[in-house]
Write a structure and sequence with these properties.
The complex is a heterodimer of chains A (765) and B (287). Chain A is an alpha+beta fold and 765 residues long. Chain A has 19 helices and 30 strands. In chain A, strand 9 and strand 10 form a beta hairpin. Chain B is globular and about 60 Å long. Chain B contains eleven helices and 13 strands. The chains are: A alpha+beta (765), B alpha+beta (287).
Amino acid sequence: MYNEIKKSQNRLDGYEKVTGQAKFGADLNFGHQLYAKTVYSEYPRAEIVSIDISEAEKLEGVVDIITYEDIPGENEMFGRFPVLAAKEVKYIGDGVAVVAAKSKETAEKAVDLINVEYKEKQPLFNMKKAYNSKDDLVHTDKEDNIIEHSHHLMRKGNIKEGLQKADVILERTYYTPFVDQAYIEPEVIVTIPDPYREGIEIHGSIQNPYSIRENVAKIMDLKISQVKVIHSTIGGSFGGKDESVMLMAARTAILAKRTDRPIKMVLTREESMLESCKRHAYELNYKIGAKQDGTIVAIEDEVYTQGGPYNNKAMFANWRGSVHATGPYRVENVKTDYYGVYTNTIYGGAYRGFSAPQTVFGSESLIDELAYELDISPKEIRLKNCLKEGDTFATGQKFGPGEIPAPLADIIEGVCEHSDYEEKRAEYKEFNNKHNEKKKGIGISCTIRGAGLGGEGIDTAGATLTIDQDGSINLISDLTEMGQGMRTAHSQIAAETLGVSLERFTFINTDTSIIMDGGPTVASRGTLAGGQAVIEAARKLKERLKKVASKKLDCKKEDIVIGNDLIYHKQNKEKTIAFEDLIEVCLNDLGISLSAQGWYNPGPEELDEETGQGKAYPTYVYGCAVTEITVDIKTGKVNVDKITAGYDIGTPINPQQVKGQLYGGLLQGLGYSLMEEFEQKEGYLKTDNFDDYLIPSIKDMPDIDIKLFDIEDDFGPYGAKSVGELGIELVAPSVTNAFYDATGRRIREIPLNLERTLLGKSLSK
Amino acid sequence: MQEFNFLQPENYREALNLLNEYHGKSKIIAGGTDLIVDLRKEKYTDLKYLIDISKLDELEYIKEDGEYIKIGSYTNHKSITKSDLVNKYAKILTLGCSEIGSPQIRNRGTIGGNIITGSPCADSVTPLVALNAIIVIESKEQKREVPIEEFYEGPYRPKIKANELLKEVYFKKLDNSYQGDFIKVKRRNAVSKARINIAALGKIDQAGKVFDIRLAPGSITPKPQRFKSVEELVKGREPDNEIIEKMGQKVAEIMIDKSGYRWSTEYKRPVIRDLTKRILKTVLEVE
């Protein structure tokens, strides 16, 4: 019934990318540009006694050097990040000074000539120690080390009474590490003084242009509209190109203003790993109570999330975590607490999943442990407890027809049947009895995920569509294309709504001076929220076109149909106008505007902050994965052989792109499960490039079999929901659950690297 | 990255002359897969010249010479893995080279480079040690040959003078009565340094006794070497699980003797023991 959506159409920006025509930030060069480089802290925590730039200033080719004294406006941005540290450095990635020089090499040399005198302080590395400390504070204006607004909770039923009803209670703690987004393109910012007016223009690898604009305006003491941000083609972001590029944008903006020259700053991989956010490291403490038959009666959990020295979105991520802490299960008695903690380490932030990879690892390991404790199949215990029609979520939200769909039981059944889950469990048991060196295992995990921002903020987004004289249509989305395929999905939605073909569509990169603030491109909301704005813009245009067409064809507007690039009368097919001809009439004969904006505003979510109860998210997506592994128990090597997964993401606007998103997420989840980890020693980063920070290669990619369960849900555009982050979160628990199935050993900390698999712990140099 | 001059000799003699002229201030660049990384880290402070040997056909060959296979130092890993000669007479080298890096690295990286870098976990070196390979080194003045086991002072420290060039590596062809294997333990399935590797060759005589056994574990000792005292345990005897068990234990003990108890020993001790057992079962055909 659809012409343009539910169809695997080629990417709109595919041609530019495969021919190398698309410019990434590092490809941009402007006349007379200078190269900027940051002087980073030498200690994880120290007082800055003095900064001596005199030697560096003398170096031929050095044009300018700035320190905290040269910031025109405030020296504090989102998350309390300073542009440059003033009195104290709080981790080894803090910037102290920035050099602008005529060449990269000169800038590098100058950085070495800047002499900063420090007075070392004892840093706070340990999250629990920092949490408990009331006198040793990362931010001395606070009373403790708990990140502002990061304590989120969920209270449902009565936890004490719930646990009393339980036949069995398990208490478990799980740990997840800091991991890097590992995008192929390191961060780039090129800032130029606005050539026409007071202000600056920022280009680069920027995920969220509006927040960068706002923060730079603040530190530059400019009006928001005097800062113009244009994102370049982005080589991956996954939540990462945000705070680091905010710092770069701020530093280069100051230098651009002072020197009146373009400033280019490209991070090395080492700098990127040092200065960009990581997925928060978690400690998840769970207590679960259940009946002998496997029915969960209560879950109590306390989760600590490591934030580093700045408040990098812990207040948002922890809220999301607190909603999902009990997993996709019916639990009548819930007590959940999430706390973000300041430490003098690298800092946590957004990375695909935004609390889900950590939380789902905890909750899905937990239910698996419960299954084995009660000698129930891991599949059956999930089927028994998963949210079904008539159940209520931890938030009190009700599931059922006309409300939130609850398809998980069907997905679990479907995935288990498709993967021969129970048969393989039996088969592998037999295999393991016969083999001493290699063991095989199969593991399952499930998830529920709130679609969009939900209670994190108002999920508004905008889009503008403009039809030009030749019948081509330009799409300006207020959200950002980072490689996820958003432009194509948005254009397909617009094409479907307008009744025209996708070939007509072109796009421009986000430019904050000509678009509305559509909020951040995060939370898998690009299609969900952005798509709604696109529909609205397309409908407005369609109405205008129909009105003109009805006069031309001399019939009622209601009888006009636009489809297949034709405008015709719904009964009388001979009454037609070609799309191009109608456009010409509108623009040239009648002077009608064929540019329309759409704005989507679902309104604020209603939540009780004291209990966490309320409408946390308007709707949810679901998934279930079954993972098969082989373990070499003599070397500790785990190989993931196959992942069979099923998802309900609503309508797949572009099934090929949906699968691409899921494959990519699964591969990143595989790295999280098996190999990704930062080695830190006394606050210093020992892992700073891809020789030590291992991410999976194509040879680590298992067979992947994905089935999409297209469950009817009216909430999103054409029933589409969210997909961007969903792929990543099921992998780690299904791998560790498979590991238990294979070996009878439960590992409660990822990654399952060689040493941890063999010895139960990581070793460090 | 540091600055340097790039010299590209037209022939082998010219390369030796340049090395002689700029010795101490120059480095040979072949595939560059290790050197470029070092240059970015500014590891060689005295470096002024890079001498590129990529145009020297005289150094790129795999040939049969009587009872030997000879490989020119500028032969890349891909060519070795595709060579019928190597595959027929020295399968363990095919296995080792095919484990190196990625297709791109195997296309660029050379066997000479892998030998000169001298990493204790080099995937071509452990097979070469098991093959009793000989290295041919030449300077403007003289030519010399060294068994590969004697070529290293320690990790990343090959015994080669600044004016010398690694010309060739050669080894005796193995007849098809030899069993060989190479095992690599790695953190991921490609582009991965060996956590541990091990190469082994074995030949059983008609009486069912061990005629020849060569055991070369990698990245557990500062320099690659055969564990001859372990080999002796089984030589001339009929191999069985009991001896193999003992040999595994012994390899782990020798590792600690030679390398000391390091941060990684807790992991490597059981793993090298079990890998030794695994590879010996294969090459000595023990069930």
